[in-house]
TrEMBL record:
Keyword terms: Carbon dioxide fixation, Lyase, Magnesium
Protein name, entry field: Phosphoenolpyruvate carboxylase
Source species taxonomy: Bacteria, Pseudomonadati, Pseudomonadota, Gammaproteobacteria, Alteromonadales
InterPro entries found in the cross-reference section: PEP_COase, PEP_COase_bac/pln-type, PEP_COase_Lys_AS, PEPCASE_His_AS, Pyrv/PenolPyrv_kinase-like_dom
Cofactor(s), names only, from the UniProt record: Mg(2+)
Keyword presence, Lyase: yes
Superkingdom of this protein's organism: Bacteria
Protein's UniProt keywords contain Magnesium: yes
Gene name per UniProt: ppc
Role: Forms oxaloacetate, a four-carbon dicarboxylic acid source for the tricarboxylic acid cycle.
Length: 878
């Protein structure tokens, strides 16, 4: 039998061996032998060898202070290298059909153009696709940027080594490069010394575009155009941009006091600076390439019959781009430079129009082959990235806007907005929105918090429309939450409409979302403002933390259905913005399946989705991976639009309602009503210690003095993934499935799993989480860290986990979890012998640091490394 994963295992083995040689050189043979001994004991322990487990624990607990850091570092880096090998395997020449799936767009076009759907409909859908991927600064990317760059270089070397034409000398050179890179990785500190600033996060987002997406976008569109042309004999438009990119990095101020109007302005300038710099590189290359003389009348007239008309235009653009970079450099250095807008790239048309003139001239002169090279790539980059690179969203909590207006009404002697009921608030806001006089006095000295809200609105108001994305209101629940932002933007002098987007996050907010939007759509002034379009954001993270994944998923589905219905009735084009995280507990999972499992009619060619943390790197970190991800998104949105999933049957809805009701009761009975739950959580996981890890710029809690409800969704999930119980991603769901089965609903559940994409995706995600959960490891954490009188909670939780696994296996009629996804199972099994020792060591170090008043620097660093290593092994953190 052919081993489908031989190539993967070979690369894992090669990288692991080089890492071992590096450790041996840096430390000594005996230390490497101890690492290998612990790894083998972990493997035997996995197979049920209790003696091996005890021996491994003895070795781990006997590590002295000087050995802790290199030990944690060794296992941490092996897991990172395993991730690299796996990531490379999906784009390798040697990948198997289970991993390297055929191009999703090619498959989809084949299905759609095979007679199912009219060709014109397919082309019209493709030309109007509006997929907006929003890069967020959620602090789950645990790897430092400097290491990420080295990991990418490792993949470059692995790619080079696949060339069968290499000479022995060339192979030696690439192996030498691998050894150098892994030595660099080993000698680099994995843990940041300081927490990144919002600007650092924004620069990290820009580096992903520069290193990967800048090349991937035109590559993807070239492949897409080729497939469409082969099937329809039609070329895609020059400026087609089915996928665009936005960002929250430097704009998301919800609960992050470090994101200020000054920071947002700097990030906007940096975004534009990076775009100008990358376009300058393209123009310099084009100056070399477009040396031809033949031109159409328009270009000849524009260049006064130059003998090098293309180069003349490009040299002018080159000068303008250099001047743009100089202008932005001065701004970033704190100056306010005077500049003539005609001398720099001020508007997108300043760059696009001259290039379109060159493109048209080349085509008119019979040089389409040349036009469709780098010049077309550049035009398509402009269509995707504009001159601002990323459209920046702003996000702020609804309460902050209400506080600003309340402070203003009190100052003006108009009463206290904070104490008015909803109808009074709406009447006031609509009256002021229609008023021609300013509301905010010029000499008003607001409090610092309110002043920051006003400054942000003024900043948004003076930006070009293409620089900004949406203004997202978190914890929105009432029409006044939206109208308040519109009033503040009006008072700031905003000259163009801004997409103001309510974010419905909690279970109650999701359930009331359609009532809120219906009330807004019934306001004549608001209907006029929208001009027939509306964006609504659906929160996955906080709704799951509030109600558990099963109830949250059904609330999200139901809210979307109702929003689609009321928008259709109001003749408004709705765009749904999905605030998904990387993990199952935050609405994560495979993007293709997730999009296809949305309610019919909810996609309709338009979608916004957040991409966060380490998932940005896993999906878009390499050009080939990015092309695959862009193809998957395009394919999924087209399929959801043209071949929507079926409407759920009434009996499916009733069953899902019961499942949601049962699951939320089971979830909240533990998380909210069990008096000792918070104490157990804080003791059994490294939740407190996570606050010391300099992951992102945002504080872990919305309120310092709050409990679970104030904890952000990311550290809530991160903490439970560290002790391997994975609780937020399954609690309540398995219990509800068991109750349904006991009621006699098993045949109905199986029908739903086979015929309803929404339910099938939910069960598939549960399977993946259950496969990653390790009850024995979580029990070890409990034994090491939790007071005896709280152990009964751990027993209950592990029983619930077992109940859920049994319920899912009974439903799917499979012998083991993930039986139908062997690649995912192989991925989990490959890592376990390396994650397990880190988990055991982490529990030991947590116990040690909690016992001692002052831990040594080595113990603290080793603990941070175990957290980073487990996160790398689990492949997602929050």
């Amino acid at each position: 039998m052919v081993d489908m994963y031989a190539s993967l295992r070979s690369n894992v083995g090669t990288l692991g061996q080089i890492l071992g040689d590096t450790i041996r050189t840096d430390l000594d043979e005996s230390f490497l032998e101890k690492i290998e001994q612990i790894r083998h004991l972990a493997k035997s322990s996995r197979q049920g060898d209790d003696a091996a487990r005890e021996e491994m624990l003895t070795l781990l607990s006997s590590l002295n202070d000087d050995e802790l850091v290199p030990f944690a570092k060794a296992f941490n880096q092996f897991l990172n290298l395993a991730n690299i090998a796996e990531q490379f395997h999906t784009i390798s020449r040697n990948c198997d059909e289970l991993v390297c799936v055929p191009d999703p767009v090619e498959q989809l076009l084949g299905r759609m153009l095979g007679g199912k759907i009219d060709q014109e409909k397919v082309l019209a859908c493709l030309k109007t696709l509006d997929i907006d991927l929003v890069l967020t600064a959620h602090p789950t990317e645990i790897s430092r940027r400097t290491l990420i760059q080295k990991y990418s270089a490792v993949i470059d070397s692995l790619t080079a080594l696949e060339n069968t034409q290499l000479t022995e000398q060339e192979k030696k050179q690439h192996h030498l490069r691998l050894r150098q890179l892994i030595a660099q990785i080993w000698h680099t500190n994995e843990i940041r010394n300081e927490r990144p600033t919002p600007v650092d996060e924004a620069r990290w987002g820009l580096s992903t575009i520069e290193a990967s997406l800048w090349q991937a976008v035109p590559d993807f569109l070239r492949q897409l155009n080729q497939q469409v042309e082969e099937r329809t004999n039609t070329q895609l438009p020059i400026d087609i941009a089915p996928v665009r990119f936005s960002s929250w990095m430097g704009g998301d101020r919800d609960g992050n006091p470090f994101v200020t109007s000054v920071v947002t302005q700097e990030v906007l300038d940096r975004n534009r600076h990076t775009a100008a710099r990358l376009y300058l590189k393209d123009v310099v290359l084009l100056v070399n390439e477009l040396s031809m003389e033949g031109a159409n009348d328009e270009l000849l007239a524009y260049t006064n019959n130059s003998c090098e008309p293309y180069r003349d235009v490009l040299r002018d653009l080159r000068q303008k781009l250099r001047a743009t970079i100089d202008y932005l450099n001065a701004k970033l250095e704190g100056h306010q430079p005077d500049v003539n807008p005609k001398d720099i790239i001020w508007h997108e048309s300043d760059l696009k129009d001259p290039l379109m003139m060159l493109y048209k001239s080349l085509c008119d002169q019979g040089m389409s082959l040349i036009a469709n090279g780098l010049l077309l790539d550049m035009l398509r980059r402009i269509a995707c990235f504009g001159i601002h690179m990323l459209r920046l969203d702003v996000r702020q909590d609804a309460e902050r806007h209400a506080d600003a207006i309340a402070e203003l009404t009190r100052y003006l002697g108009m009463g206290d907005y904070a104490h008015w009921d909803e109808s009074e608030k709406q009447s006031f806001l609509l009256r002021e929105l229609s008023s021609k006089r300013p509301l905010i006095p010029a000499n008003w000295q607001a409090s610092a918090e309110v002043e920051e809200v006003i400054k942000t609105c003024r900043l948004v108001a003076k930006q070009p429309a293409r620089a900004m994305g949406s203004y997202v209101i978190s914890m929105a629940s009432k029409p006044s939450d939206v109208l308040a932002v519109l009033l503040l933007l009006k008072e700031a002098g905003c000259p163009h409409p801004i997409r103001v987007v309510p974010l419905f996050e909690t279970l109650d907010d999701l359930n009331n979302a359609s009532d809120c939007m219906s009330a807004l759509f019934n306001i004549d002034w608001y209907r006029g403002y929208t001009k027939g379009t509306q964006e609504v954001m659906i929160g996955y993270s906080d709704s799951a933390k509030d109600a558990g994944v099963m109830a949250a998923a059904w609330a999200q589905y139901s809210a979307q259905e109702k929003l689609v219905a009321i928008s259709k009735e109001a003749n408004i084009n709705l765009t749904l913005f999905h605030g998904r995280g990387g993990t199952i507990g935050r609405g994560g999972g495979p993007a293709h399946e997730a999009i296809l499992s949305q309610p019919p009619g909810s996609v309709d060619g338009r979608i916004r989705v957040t991409e966060q943390g380490e998932m940005i790197r896993f999906k878009f970190g390499l050009p080939k991976l990015a092309v695959q991800s862009l193809a998957l998104y395009t394919s999924a949105v087209m399929e959801a639009t043209l071949l929507p999933p079926p409407e759920p049957k009434p009996e499916w809805r009733e069953c899902m309602e019961r499942l949601a009701d049962d699951s939320v009761l089971a979830y909240r009975a533990m998380v909210r009503e069990e008096p000792d739950f918070v104490s157990y959580f804080r003791a059994a996981t490294p939740e407190v210690e996570l606050g010391k890890l300099p992951l992102g710029s945002r504080p872990a809690k919305r309120r310092v003095d709050g409990g679970i409800e104030s904890l952000r969704a990311i550290p809530w999930i991160f903490a439970w993934s560290q002790n391997r119980l994975m609780l937020p991603a399954w609690l309540g769901a398995g219990e509800a499935l068991k109750m349904a089965t006991d009621r006699g609903d098993l045949p109905l559940l199986q029908e739903m799993e086979k015929q309803w994409p929404f339910f099938k995706t939910r069960i598939s995600m549960l399977e993946m989480v259950y496969a990653k959960a390790e009850p024995n490891l979580s029990k070890f954490y409990e034994t090491s860290l939790v007071k005896q009188e709280l152990h009964h909670l751990g027993v209950q939780l592990r029983e619930r986990l077992a109940t859920g696994i049994e319920a899912v296996l009974e439903l799917t009629q499979a012998e083991s979890l993930m039986a139908h996804t062997p690649w995912n199972r192989e991925s989990v099994e490959l890592r376990n012998p390396y994650i397990d020792p880190l988990n055991f060591l982490q529990a030991e170090l947590l116990a040690r640091t909690r016992r001692e008043e002052q831990s040594s620097q080595n113990v603290e660093l080793a603990l941070m490394l175990t957290i980073a290593g487990v996160a790398a092994g689990m492949r997602n953190t929050g």
